[in-house]
Each structure stands twice: as C-alpha cells, then as structure tokens.
Specification:
heterodimer; A: 437 residues; alpha+beta; DNA polymerase, domain 1; Uridine Diphospho-n-acetylenolpyruvylglucosamine Reductase, domain 3; 5-stranded antiparallel beta sheet; 17 strands; 34% helix; 20% strand; B: 755 residues; Aldehyde Oxidoreductase, domain 3; Aldehyde Oxidoreductase, domain 4; 3 domains; 8-stranded mixed beta sheet; 6-stranded mixed beta sheet; 30 strands; 26% strand; globular
C-alpha cells in the first residue's frame, strides 16, 4: 500500500523500492522505480518496499522527515524514505551530496524540497558516524529492521533457480525504455530477461580497451574507477543522465538499441567510436556504433541478434573528451540537444576528431564531415567558426516539445563552443561567444 | 506541533483514494476522450468494445437520468459530449469493466466519426471572434485616460504567462459504492466534497441526501481538485447507479494530464504611466484569459486577476479589463493563486519595462509605489498594509545594497556567467471573492471517556489544515492534541461545505471549530464550578486539569466529562461561521471583499550560464507577514513549497499544445516540475512580527497561496541576468523563461530601425 503509483514512467519515484542481490559475494541494495521493473528482473532478489523498512518506532530517516516537516501531502514520501534508506544500506560515501543524489529520482510537489534537504543533512550526519559495514550499522541504528541480517542466507536459498529462456521471445534488459513505451503490450508478451545472465554484467579492461557487457547498468559504469580516471568529468556527466533509480536499471546497450535521437550515452559513445558486438545465438558480429542507425528508430540489427558487448578505447594522455547536455530541467530530463566531442592533439594540432550530436536529426548523429574538417587544424577561434558553419549544414532539427528548430541549431553551436572552451582554455571567451554560425 | 499525519505518511500507511480496501465485485472505469479538439460527432460505435469479455457496460450521454451538465458557475459544460466535441480529451463514453486493463483496451475499440470544426487555442483570437464565456469586466479607480496626460513617462507592452499543470502526485480518482435504498457512498479525491455531492445529485436527478461523499486526504490538490475532481466521481456514481456495483476510477497520469484543466494561460496588454519621480500615476491592463472550452472556475479566476492587477502597489488611476475567452483546450481551472499571479505578473512586467527603459532598478519604482495603510485598492477596499514593513525588513535583513554591489562586481568580471537580482513584493487578499462561499461548519463530539472527535469541512491535502484544526480545539478545550482525532471530511457530517481553497480553509473552519469548542466549554465550565464550588469566571482548563484562578484543582478533564455525561449535559456541538464585514457589489465592482491581505517581499538572486542558457537560483530571501503563525513548521513548509511551485511556473514548467489543440507535454517526461537539484540553493524566510489585529484564526494569517507569487521574482531576476549579458536583448515579457527563451534572448538582438 505504501508504494505509490505516480507516473508509470520512472519520472516521479513514488513507487521506489529497493532491490537486494548478492554481487561478488556481497549483499548490495539499489533503489529502482518499480513501475519500470518487470517481475522477471526481481527473480532471486530481495525486494524492499516501505513496509519492509517500517519497524516499531520510526527509523532515523523517517524521524528526520518528521522533525523537519519534510512530508506534506505524503504521497511521494514513501518513495523518498525508501530512496534515502537505500543510501543507508549502501557502502557509498555517505556525504550530504550523496543523500541528495539518492533522492534525485523522487519528485515532491508540496515541500519545495528544502525540508527534505534538512532531513537529508540529519541522516548524512548520522551515517558519517559509521565505523562498520553499512548494513550492520543500518541495523544497529534501526534504519532497517533486524531481519535484513538474514537476507544473505535467505537469498542463497534462492540460488540455482533457473528459468527457461526462449530465444524467440522479446529481449528485456533494464526495461526503462520499453516499459515507458509499451507497458500494456509487455504484460502479455513472453520475455527473455537478459539481465539474468551474469556474463553480460561485466566490465573488462584490456590495455587501453574497455569491454562493457550489455547488461551493465549505468550505475555500474558510474562507479567504475577506471572510467572515472579516463574521463575527468565523469561524475558530472553521469549526473546529467536520468536519476539514481533509473541508472540502477538502465543499460548502455538498451540506450543504443532504443535508438532515440537524443540518447545521452549513445551520443557519448558515438564520439568515442564505440564498437558493438552482436550475437545471434551462433556467431558474433562487430559493428561500429556510428553505423547502427538507419533512420528514425531504425537500427541495423537482426531480430535474433542481441548486443553482448560494447567495446571502446579509453582516452589517453593526448586525448580530450567532453560531453554537453541541455534540457528544460538540468537533471532527470531528456535533452533538447546533447553533444560529445573527442579529439587527439599532437604538436598543437588536432590529429583526430569525432563530434556527435543528439536532438538535431532523426538519428543520434555522428557528424562525420565536421569531424573530418578538424583534422590537422589548430584549436583556434577561426577553426571553431568554420566548424560551426559546417555543423549547421550537417544537421536537420525539427520543432517539438523540447524546443524549436532554430533554438536547437543555436544550442548545438553553443555546446560546440563549450567543447572548445573546455579543450582550449586559452582562447578568448568573449570572441567565442560572439561567434555566430 | 508536527503535522498529525506525519507518522502514517513516513511509514506509507496513510490511506489515499487508491489505497481504500476494495469491496468484492468492484468494477473499474475508464473514459473514452475525444481524439480531436473541435468537431461535430457524426457517429459513435461502442458495440465492439461493449462486447469484449469483462466489459460490463459502456455509458454515454444517453444514460444520464438527470442533466448532462456539470458547469459550476456557468451551465456550459456537458458531462459527456453529445453532438459536439469542444476539446481534445472531452469525455464521450465511459467503459466499466472487471479490470483497469480490460477497460483500457475496450477504449481502443471505440470508433468515432467526426466532422472537423476550426480549432482555436489562442485567447486573443477567441476574443476577436466574440467567443467570450462571460461579459468582460472592468475594475476602475480614478481616471486613467486623463491621468496619462499628466505622466512624464508612458510605457506599453504585452506580457504573457503560460498555464501550469498541477501535477499533484496522486492523480484524480473516485470510488462509488451502492448502499441500501438508493443511497450511495462516494470516496472522492476532491477539494470540494459538496460540489461532488451536488453535481452527482443533478446528473442522477436525485436529492443530495442520498450521497455521502467522503474524503480522508488528497495526495496534493493545488486547486486542481477543486472543481475538476467532480467529473470522475460522477462517472463512478453514474455507473454504480446503473450497475448496482462498486465502481472505481483512479486515473492514469496521461489521462489526468490530457483530460484535466490547468492554470489559465493569459496574454495581456499593459500601459503604465509614471511621474518624473517614478510614482505610478496611471495603469491600464487588458487581460485575455484562456479559459478553455467551458467556464469551469475561469470567471472567478478572472475576477481575482482584476483584484490583484496592481499587486502590492497603490495606483490612483487604474482601468483593468478582463476577458474570459473560450478556446478549444481542456477547461482551465483553479491553481494556487487563482488568477492573482497572472495579474501580478503583468504589472511587474510593466514596471520592468519602465525600469529597463529608464535605466533604473525596478526596485526603485516598486518601492516608491508600495501600498500604505489607508490607500484605496481599485475595488474600493482600504488597505491595512504591511507592504512597506516587509520590504524594509527584507532590505535591511538581507542587505540588498550589498547583494546588488556583489552582482555588479561579478558581472563586470565574468563573461560566461551573469547574475541577476529581483525584488518581488506580494499582496494577496484572503477570502473567497464570492461572498456566499465564506462560511464553514464544524462538528465536535466529546465522548464519555474524554476523547474527542472533530469534523470540519476542511480537506487535508498536505497544507496541514487538519493539524491546525486540532490545535484550535486543543487550545480552546485545554486538552492535549493527542486526545483529539480528526474525522474524514464527509458530507453527512458537515453539509454545504465550500471547497478547501482560497487559502481561507483554516480561517473559516478554524473559526467554526473555535465556536463549537467555546459552546461546549460554556456548558462544562459551570459544571466544573459547581463540582469545585467555585465561580464559573474563576474556572479554566489547562493541559486537561481544571484550574481555579491559577490553582490546579484535582478535577481532571476525564472526570469532568464523565460527570457531564451523567448530568445529561450536551457533549456535542455543531457550529456555523460566516466571515463578518466582507461584501462586494459586482454591479459597480466595489466593496470590501477580503477579510485581510497578506504581504511579503522576496529577493531572488540567480546565476546564468551564458554559453548554454541554463541557470541556477542562488537564493530567495523572504520576509513574510504571517500575522502570528500558529504552526511555524507547517507555515514554513507552505512558504517553501509555494515558492518552488511559483518558480516552476516561471521557469521550467512549459505546457505545449499544438495548433490542433493536442497536449504535447502530456507526461512527466515532457512536462518538468522542479526536482531536488533545481530549487534555490538557499531559501531564508523571516517571520515578520506585526501588531495589527486581523480576522485570521488566532491572528495566524492564511499562507496557502501567497508564497507562490514570490516565484515571479525568479522570472525577473533571470531576465535581468539576460540583460546583463545582452542589453539589447529582444527577450519577450513571457513566462516561463525556459532555457530555450534564455538562450534565444542572450543571442538575438532587438531589431533596430536599420535592420
């Protein structure tokens, strides 16, 4: 009863539950929006609703909300409590920012969030006292009931439950796009739950290459030390993409296959010239992501094929990479326009460039001509000016709920200026801002 | 005192409409809404859908035993479309089935043939074509036409505000249950249980006493469930009436967004005239209100736009005219502020335009024209003003001079980022502007064990009104709040309720509670005096103990009540309160419509990213006139929540209809309300101490709507930041100021004569 239905598309967080599973021998909890989570993905896991958190007395999270008046109509409140409790049982650094991030997928229409921020501060202060494993501490503080200590044993008993796989069935990853678009149809469809396959959940690194399993969630990527190291803006980029709950379910492969012209990670990896490994049950096939899109929501993939892996080269010493996104609301929103740029420098010249842009055409665009133009040029205001003109030739935005076409043209130009400002901090900003395409 | 609902809220144990335990045999409803915005209906085929397994029946206008009419103010709103479709989403048929899923799939089998009619979405076009729902209204004081001749400066322009989706997290819904002998119980997520009761009675052609409408709480209302909750309850009741089965309808978010009205968008013309020393001598405004396809509450919303057309300023010569324009959009409705914010935005826009043209800070004009006690509002009421007190306190407490200097320095040294500041004074009248609605009732039972049950006409929707009702009763009776339980809002306990709206609910119902408790005390005090052999005038009850003068006696509340029962003293009371003094004569548009006004000032500072057109609200610093807040935690929550809702309306919340009248921003993925990252980094709220008597309950002024209008400051702060980057910007006086409008404003220059 406490788990509420608010939007049915993962955008309000009122239905947030925790999902506990044993990963690498440890019990890990993630928050998810249950409206987008198929039961098939719950198999073998511990699902925690607000009822599973309630004890005899209010938990410290609940008490903090009570003390600060952080609940008004109360409809969103169970979702917030579950989300913040998710932080309490996680090993993540329990900073104040982490407490806020834990609730970034929860919408409250009454409080204006300031009282929720105050409650988060209290909870974070409590968590910072912790000197033992998170779950142990959470139990000792009554943040979750005692029964949580039995969960690892209980989950072990569920081990070995296997489910039949029907290769013909529709493939379901995290479900965060499919359940927004086809909720009703999916009720009756036979599904093949890809995330049950542990093989697909690995991130491997070999020399400077990164291999991301198709079942790897965005949260897994977010936590990767290697990626954080390779991309100095990593945490910022991740924060621009959906919410904690969605990132806990969504996969990179799903973002690619969904073929949204505005997919954040699609744009990100287009500029990295990522390669996709398909498997059709018999053999593998490698396709550059830049060649995947044939038209609006059309992809060059056979029905029996699934993505198994995404491969890309980690940026090195001479590489510069930047991702930009602007949406009506900065966080948990679909971009009006997004763009990524990757360049390699040698002796003051650009020796390689890849520029991608979303929201400016029917497919997530790799801007091949504009990228090629940059070859062997200097990172100067003049180069940027020419680049901006070329980009305008290469795009065809339309007017929709995310902005008018002329806005999207201007915005992409601005985002490319932002790439240049980050890559070449010596350039005069006023001159860059004065450029028109 | 913390909100009495807190404990169950944080545990997920509070019961909302969709949480009510369902009776066996409950059926589920879904509406087939018009797929086009304006058309003649040629044919409607429901046979295939009706034949689907699990579908019990499909209802249309033909199944209405009473009238096919639900208009509250004007009878212009059919429950079901009959011959003509007036907006996309207008209900045409109601499917009732054994599951929500079956009902929804049956909807898809309904076929409709139509003949298209021209679609109008723009209120100015509607006005041109004479499509006005009610005659235009004009509020007038002085003689603006002649006053303009005495003005040194005159500025004219257009100001626009878009609509706003309520986005209560709990969608609309109702659940109807048949009772014996032709009576019904209706659970409804409504701000107005009596409106639900009355309209069901009319549609079913039965007396109101057959319908027990019950509301425990809402998961948010904000005005969206004042009038527009009614239709869903009627649908359930209609189906229950015919099928003799419980019927429930809890809307899908996309149904809710498509089929329910929003804040009225406005397009307005203004003309402002100032003297050399920046006194506003004359102001004229024409408001074109987009009412949508039917009146709903729009004429009343329009009226409040006129009441607040001069916001917190005294202007001696005003002519303000408002047009209630009929378009082919979903009928718009009440939303926190109820037309007030739309009116205030226009005069703020006029002041901004004047300030920008004269190269002075807008605050200079604002401050010189703040309304003072004794000034006359355009509608004739004499102000008892806290406007200057709030402004001066804000100026001093938050050091506006220093803020301004910091921003100037920042802007002088930054290219990529620009900061902006605005001051936003507010003045909001408290009372329903329909005088008859300013009445309320309370029913109190003291049980023989001393515990107390309290019923009022107030609907709890997160604003904390029930907590305040308990506080009033506890205070008057001298008992601890824990002994008082508040009942659901129910038309069998409290009749003829006004909706919980107009910020007046705590005042109206609180006064009724106070009266009911006083009446019980008038019977208990003599009894206590008799028991203790003291004079009644010496008796008081504090913390459940009877005191003689200041001495605690041995007589406890419980003993006193037990004794009263044995003595056959009435331990229940029903009280009626009607706000005194207020009056309004609409034929001359003059009177004293408000019990009092609420004042305040907000200072908003923002930072703009001039590369990307994105922005952050750095801080909002507020001084607010609470009178004497009876619950600072709850009242602070209203300030912060109202402010952020207002900021949402002014910044990211953008309703998009296409030219065919179809809602494009129809889900949370396309309509964005503030999230936890987008709220101001700092919100400071100072509670202004005031001595003036007021008509609020315990001097604790209404606080529901006024803070929303602080959000208007965010528009002007952002606008100022845009102008700091591009003084020649062509940015329109149009809200919301989305990142799109900001970026276009940063880089598009005003056309010059040479262009």
């Amino acid at each position: 009863m406490g788990t509420k239905i608010g939007c049915r598309e993962g955008d309000c967080g009122a239905c947030t539950v925790l999902v506990g599973e044993i990963l690498a021998g440890k019990l890990i909890y993630h928050s998810v929006t249950s409206c987008l989570m198929p039961l098939g993905n719950a198999a073998g896991k511990h699902i925690v609703t607000i009822e599973g958190i309630n004890g005899t007395n209010l938990t410290p999270v609940q008490q903090a909300f009570a003390n600060e008046g952080a609940t008004q109509c109360g409809f969103c409140t169970p979702g917030f409590i579950v989300s913040l409790t998710g932080l309490c049982v996680s090993e993540n650094e329990p900073s104040y920012d982490a407490a806020i991030n834990a609730m970034n997928g929860n919408i409250c229409r009454c409080t204006g969030y300031k009282s929720i921020e105050r409650a988060a501060k209290t909870v974070a202060n409590n968590l910072q006292q912790r000197k033992q494993p998170a779950l142990e501490y959470a139990i000792s503080q009554n943040m979750v009931p005692e029964y949580f200590s039995e969960i690892p044993a209980r989950l072990k008993q569920l081990d070995g439950i296997t489910r039949s796989k029907n290769a013909e069935a529709k493939k379901m990853g995290g479900g965060t796009d499919l359940y927004v678009q086809q909720h009703e149809q999916l009720h009756h469809e036979e599904l093949n739950f890809l995330l049950q396959d542990d093989e697909l959940k690995r991130i491997n690194y070999l020399n400077d290459e990164c291999y991301i399993g198709a079942g790897v969630t965005v949260s897994q990527l977010a936590g990767s030390a290697v990626l954080k190291n390779a991309f100095p803006g990593w945490d910022h980029y991740i924060k621009l993409v959906s919410s904690t709950q969605i990132r806990n379910m969504a996969t990179l492969a799903g973002n690619f296959i969904n073929a949204s012209p505005i997919g954040d990670f699609t744009i990100f990896f287009l500029a990295l010239n990522a390669q996709i490994k398909f498997n059709n049950g018999e053999k593998n096939r490698i396709l550059p992501l830049q060649e995947l899109y044939a038209g609006y929501k059309k992809i060059k993939k056979e029905p029996e094929e699934i993505i198994t892996e995404i491969i890309f080269k980690l940026p090195g010493q001479n590489d510069l990479f930047n991702f930009e996104k602007v949406s009506k609301r900065t966080n948990l929103d679909i971009a009006s326009v997004n763009s990524a740029m990757h360049i390699k420098m040698k002796d003051g010249k650009i020796i390689y460039a890849a520029l991608s842009a979303g929201g400016v055409g029917p497919v997530p665009a790799y801007l091949a001509k504009s990228s090629a133009y940059l070859q062997d040029r200097e990172g100067s205001v003049e180069t940027l000016h020419e680049l901006l003109k070329m980009v305008q030739q290469e795009i065809s935005p339309i007017s929709d709920a995310r902005g008018k076409a002329d806005y999207k043209r201007l915005l992409l130009a601005q985002l490319i200026k932002a790439h240049f400002i980050k890559f070449f901090p010596g350039l005069p900003i006023d001159k860059i801002l004065a450029l028109s395409a | 005192m913390i909100n009495i609902d807190t404990h169950t809220h944080v545990r997920g144990e509070s019961i909302y409409l969709d949480d009510i335990t369902e009776l066996q045999g409950t059926l589920y409803a879904a509406v087939y809404g018009a797929p086009v915005a304006h058309a003649k209906i040629i044919s409607l085929q429901i046979e295939e859908a009706a034949a689907m397994p699990g579908v019990h029946r499909i209802f249309t206008y033909k199944d209405i035993p009473g009238i096919n009419q639900i208009g509250g103010i004007v009878a212009d709103e059919p429950l079901f479309a009959h011959n003509e479709i007036h907006f996309n989403g207008m209900p045409i048929a109601l499917v009732v089935a054994e599951s929500v899923e079956i009902a929804q799939s049956a909807i898809k089998k309904i076929k409709l043939e139509t003949e298209a009619l021209p679609v109008i979405t723009d209120p100015r076009v509607a006005k041109e074509k004479g499509l006005l729902i009610t005659p235009p209204r004009t509020f007038k004081i002085g003689d603006s036409e002649n006053a303009f001749a005495k003005c040194k400066y005159i500025f004219e322009g257009v100001a626009e505000t878009n609509g706003q989706e309520h986005l209560y997290i709990e969608t609309q819904g109702a659940y109807a249950i048949p009772l014996e002998d032709g009576s019904f119980k209706i659970y409804s997520s409504t701000q107005g249980p009596t409106a639900v009761q009355r309209h069901i009675a009319e549609v079913l052609s039965l007396p109101m006493h057959r319908f027990e409408v019950d509301t425990t709480r809402l998961g948010g209302g904000f005005g969206g469930k004042e009038d527009q909750a009614t239709v869903w309850a009627i649908f359930c009741a209609l189906a229950t009436f015919h099928l003799k089965k419980p019927v429930k309808y809890s809307l899908h978010r996309m149904e809710d967004m498509r089929m329910t009205g929003k804040r009225n968008p406005y397009s307005s013309d203004f003309k402002i005239g100032l003297t050399e020393d920046l006194k506003i001598l004359a102001y004229e405004a024409s408001f074109y209100q987009n009412a949508g396809a039917s009146a709903d509450l729009s004429p009343a919303v329009l009226e409040r736009t006129l009441f607040h057309s001069t916001n917190s300023y005294h202007v001696p010569n005003v002519t303000a005219t408002a047009y209630c324009c009929r378009t082919n959009l979903v009928p718009n409705t009440a939303f926190r502020g109820f037309g007030g914010p739309q009116g205030m935005f226009v005069i703020e826009a006029a002041i901004a335009k004047a300030a920008e043209s004269l190269q002075v800070p807008a605050s200079e004009i604002q401050y010189k024209n703040l309304v003072k006690t004794g000034d006359e509002f355009p509608y004739g009421q004499i102000a008892e003003s806290e406007a200057i007190a709030c402004w001066n306190k804000a100026d001093e407490l938050y050091d506006v001079k220093k803020k301004r200097k910091e921003i100037e320095d920042f802007n002088a040294t930054h290219t990529q980022l620009k900061k902006g500041i605005s001051l936003m004074p507010i003045c909001f009248g408290i009372s329903f502007t329909k005088i008859f609605m300013n009445q309320a009732r309370a029913l109190i039972h003291v049980y023989q064990d001393g515990s107390i049950k309290l019923s009022t006409g107030a609907v709890e929707m997160g604003q904390g009104v029930n907590t305040k009702m308990v506080q009033v009763a506890a205070m008057v009776l001298g008992v601890k709040p824990i002994h008082i339980k508040i009942a659901s809002t129910n038309t069998y306990r409290i009749a003829n309720t006004s909706p919980s709206a107009a910020s007046a609910t705590a005042d109206l119902n609180g006064k009724a509670v106070e009266m009911a408790c006083n009446a019980i005390m008038e019977r208990l005090i003599p009894l206590a005096a008799e028991i203790l052999k003291a004079e009644p005038s010496e008796i008081s009850i504090v913390d459940e103990w009877v005191y003689i003068k200041d001495l605690k006696s041995t007589l406890h509340w419980k003993t006193l009540i037990a004794e009263a029962y044995l003595k056959r003293i009435g331990l229940s009371e029903h009280s009626h309160y009607a706000t005194p003094v207020i009056n309004f004569n609409a034929s001359i548009e003059k009177g004293h419509p408000f019990a009092y006004h609420v004042y305040g000032t907000a200072i908003t500072t923002v930072t703009l990213d001039c590369i990307r057109g994105t922005y952050e609200i750095d801080a909002v610093d507020i001084v607010h006139d609470f009178g004497q807040s009876m619950n600072p935690t709850i009242d602070l929550g209203q300030i912060e929540g109202g402010l952020v809702q207002g900021i949402g309306w002014m910044t990211m919340e953008e309703i998009v209809f296409d030219d065919e009248g179809k809602l494009r921003s129809n889900a949370l993925s396309t309509y964005k309300v503030p999230d936890i990252y987008s709220v101001p980094k700092k919100v400071n709220t100072h509670f202004l101490k005031t001595d003036q008597e007021n008509m609020a309950i315990f001097r604790s002024k209404a606080v529901g709507e006024p803070p929303l209008m602080y959000g208007i400051g965010s528009y002007f702060a952002l606008r100022n930041a845009v102008l700091a980057f591009n003084p020649q910007s062509s940015i329109a006086l149009s809200a919301p100021i989305t990142p799109e409008k900001v970026l276009m404003g940063l880089y598009l220059k005003k056309p010059t004569l040479n262009d």
